[in-house]
Amino acid sequence: MTGENIALAFRILPLELWNTIYMVVVAMLLGTLIGLPLGIILTITSKGHLKSHHGIYKCLETLVIIGRSFPFAILMVALIPLTRLIVGTSLGTTASIVPLTIAAAPFIARLVETSLKEVDRHVLEAAIVMGSTTQHIITKVLLPEALPSLISVGSLTIVNLIGYSAMAGLVGGGGLGQVAIQYGYNRFNTFIMVVTVLLLIALVQGVQWLGNRAVRKIIEKRGTFSL
Amino acid sequence: MIDIQSVSKRYGALDALKEISLFIEKGDIFGIIGLSGAGKSTLIRTLARLIRPTSGKILVEGIDITQLEGKALRAYRHQMGMIFQNFNLLSSCSVADNISYPLEIAGISKEKREQRIDELLALVGLSDKKEIYPSMLSGGQKQRVGIARALASHPKILLCDEATSALDPKTTREILDLLHSISKKLGVTIVLITHEMEVIRRLCNKVAVIEKGSIVEQGLVTEVFSNPQHPTTQQFLQNSSHDLSPEFIKTLSLDGQLLRLHFRGQSAKEPIISHMMRHFKLEVNILMGWIDRVQHTTVGTLIVELKGSDEAMEKAKQYLLEQNVKCEVLNR
To answer: What is this structure's pTM?
Structure first.
């Protein structure tokens, strides 16, 4: 029995682990592509900032709030028509990337905004006085100054996406979540269930560890102790 | 160089600056002193065009900077450097990269930047700290980096926003001396704001006293210091020196003449008092004394009580005058 289970685990888990990683990584990249610029625009259009603009800020903020208000399970279902339009199907790993991206983007945007707003206003002022353009300030001051905090945002988002991807697995999204449902829940295969859970724990811990390590390295290099 | 013409700044009902007019010449080290809330910070931020005044003009080499926008404003800022109370260095960059920043955004090539960074580090005495991050530096060293960064693109004007207020007295003196030598060496015009008379005394050649958004007194530091007109100026001077107030002199009930003697440069080194006692048969009672540096000359002050005949007293005063010692009678 155990021998069979081990063989089964070896047959299905590597592929599904890969599927989970694939979904999370692609959704993370796409989510950052949308969320990071959104977070930057939210920051600089906020009150008293570089390009303060109440109208733009309010519009984008509303969008972010709506995006973040959806529980992921509902977002996933609500987005099925959009997913079909983009991917052609609502099943499988590639299809799961659509709701995962759309869940990640506003999450990233809001956390990026919080991180960037922690950059000392006086430092920005100094950069302005030196004749910086807004682009200089974003790329050479805001982002580098907030880097440790932005890396934390990244690892936090990945951990969240791993959780969401498992949820996507419940409705045919593929990945480790689907394994847990099919083998662990529907077929009472405790062994597969336990191995799947252990893999997820390892994945989350690995990401967290890497993120923390990167943050610590930067802080040690700069000698700053606050994030 | 900088011609500030009736500049006002209004925030709602608050007049932060009221019709301020100042003329700053090339090479001046111009100090603006005031208490917190007097408007000095608004004034220097207006010069950096972080604030646009409600009315008035600021001509810098003939160009009205209050009207500058976009590219022209950035071009003005490239000709100007600024240092800050809290240094405002980039914590994400090493000392060298902090100094490199203004050069980088001005589009200067890497080789030229490297060369300039080394020059500037030598100028501020931090050549051994090139690759260190700001958080590992002391306050004085951080301000040196700030100064190097401000001077990177060869500015004509250096604005100092309470540049020494976060530093201890010894470091303050070092930074002030550095600024003084920079002004001499590079001919940069320096405009600074402060609430400490000591800063003006050591560094500036001209001073303006600001109170409630208006300039109440201005002129050469030597003149304003020796003959302050406005009560605020007098107060600043009193706080900064250890002088005797007239009320206090009355309570001393002295029978002799109370004199304040000013020694300058060489005269501070001669045994003038002991000579005076022996030759004019006077009794000299030293009440207090101190030594100071104004504008990089040593100035000694003694407050003494003289007892003796009127004739001897007159002779003694004559002698003091010959020795280049200025003498003021404080009682009578």
So the answer is: 0.80
